[in-house]
From TrEMBL:
Pfam families on file: DUF4212
UniProt-recorded name of the protein: Sodium symporter small subunit domain-containing protein
Sodium symporter small subunit domain mapped to chain residues: 9-86
Biological source species: Pseudoalteromonas aurantia 208
Keywords (A to Z) from UniProt: Membrane, Transmembrane, Transmembrane helix
Membrane-crossing segments per the record: 21-42, 54-74
Length: 87
């Protein structure tokens, strides 16, 4: 990676870290919040025949994590193009 100056490099990493923290916060809410804290409330709703809280704790957190990986890749490709460090 070749940034034009130190200020551009700091801005790039600042945006990268902000994106990572947002995506990790979403994953935390889905896995810990929906799968553990709100499981009793969500279990009142059925999803494909399963209780929603059970589904989030068993499958939903994993699916969300995989989706967030794809979101991260898409956003990082955009960020790389924005700062001119794409391949």
């Amino acid at each position: 990676m070749a940034f034009k100056d130190e200020e551009q490099a700091k801005a790039y990493w600042s945006e990268n870290l902000a994106l990572m923290f947002k995506l990790l916060a979403i994953w935390f809410v889905v896995s810990f919040g929906f799968g553990i804290l709100l499981v009793d409330v969500l279990n009142e709703v059925r999803f494909f025949g399963f209780k929603l809280g059970f589904w989030f704790s068993q499958q939903g957190a994993i699916y969300t994590f995989v989706a967030l990986i794809f979101v991260y890749v898409f956003k990082m490709n955009s960020l790389d193009k924005k700062y001119g460090v794409d391949e």
